[in-house]
Amino acid sequence: MRSRITASGSARVRLIAALLGALIIAGMLWTGSSLRLFDGNTVNLFQSPAEPERIIAHATYGKRYTSLSQLLEESTSVVSGRIVQDSNSHLEGDGVAFTEAVLKVDHVLLGTDIVQAQEIVISQTGGFEPRIGKIVELELEPLMRVGEEYLLFVRPQGPRNPGKWVVTGGYAGRFKIQNGNAYRPTPDDPLAQARETLSRDWNGNSVQALESAIRNIP
Amino acid sequence: MSKIRASIVAVLVLVGLALSSISVSAHYLNYSTWDHSTVIYKDILNSYSYELGLSAVAWDNAVGLLVSVAEESECSCDWDIQVGDAYYEGQSWWGKWSGTLWEELFVDLNEYNMSGGSTEKRRAVITHEFGHAVGGLGHHDESGRIMQSWVGDFYDTDGLYTLDSGTISEIDYLW
Q1: What's this model's pTM, rounded to 2 decimal places?
Q2: Distance to chain A for B114, nearest Cα, Å
Q3: Is the ipTM of this complex over 0.85?
Q4: Structural domains in chain B?
Q5: CA-CA distance, B87 to B3, in Å (whole number)?
Q6: Range from B76-90, B100-114, B149-163 that averages highest in pLDDT
Q7: For B122, which of A85, A124, B36, B51 could close a Cys bridge (C-beta 3.0–4.6 Å)?
């Protein structure tokens, strides 16, 4: 009799322990689960240590580009292709991160300074910033990642960075290609969206139509 | 001459803010409590101290003497907003901010673009960035607002380089 009670009691203890364990794991998943270490730092239990948290930075741009021809005026080439490398980051100035993405050019729509199949290095604002402890990405210019396809208005970055390119107007000259359509990041503010005529005209439109419009710019 | 003027303004701003009593009443915005903000500037002798001082005064008036500014090397305080500028070649942004509101914010100014602008234009950009960092405001793309998304709109088109009445009203409403 006594051994039966003990056996059923220990089964109950195991059941309660299992339920508690499941509750703790569910709670960690629910809250995003960070664990505070003795040194005061925290580690996220469900995030790879190789991938720090991301944070959005907000930029103020000089000019609002309203047409493809306006973009072209300040670009030396218009190219499309796929990102083949995205990992080279460095810090400049007061700790601002920049990441270089390598685009393998499939098509040169306009311009003579880039040739088909060339791999061009594109300098983008963003990357891991030690001063914040996170990967910083601009709201309208998320870092381009390997495998993604883009149509870009580009120009040389400048004499201090020979051989590197920047996208004209930051986000303005950047069209992400997905399933044959072009997509652009758009500002949150509805009034800003209304002023973003390039996004209004081309967001979700076919890349073929976009390429045709670019080739037909007088 | 401009360096002397910049230094004089910076000193005046620092002394003025030090002498003025900082409000002790808490302000609430989006359920966050914020008593005052200490802005530090990393390279005050380098370029934009004059514009920074004027922008800080404008925001200081708008939010009720909550903003204090100091050069990094002179500040042994806990700073809230760190302003820095450098030459970020080819990048299209004039200013940007990142970090966590009411905790630690970084405002970065891009000398690549800023150095080609007039004093008023640089002041406009700094006042705009302070709108995010100090005022906790997002973009507001109505004509005549300093918080419009593009410098071309709020400065080149509307000629704004300091706080407009609409933004001040928004601050009064929010705070």
Answers
A1: 0.77
A2: 10
A3: no
A4: 2-174 (3.40.390.10)
A5: 19
A6: B149-163
A7: B51
Angle at A31 between CA A30 and CA A37, to 5 degrees: 135
User: Shortest CA distance to B127 belongs to which of B69, B46, B53, B65?
Assistant: B53
Q: Is A88 helix (H, G, I), strand (E, B) or coil?
A: strand
Pair (A90, A28) in one structural domain: no
Q: B99 to chain A, minimum CA–CA distance in Å?
A: 7
Longest Cα separation, chain A: 97
Q: Pick from A58, A60, A65, A123 the residue to mutate for testing the B interface (most B CBs within 10 Å).
A: A60
Place of tokens 């794991």: A25
Are A34 and A73 part of one and the same domain?
A: no
Question: Mind listing the pLDDT tens digit for each residue in B130-167?
Answer: 898 888 888 898 999 999 999 999 999 999 999 999 99
C-alpha–C-alpha distance, residues B28 and B151, integer Å = 29
User: Which residues from chain B sit within 8 angstroms of residue A64, using beta carbons?
Assistant: 149-150, 152-153
**pLDDT tier at A43 (50, 70, 90 boundaries)?**
very low
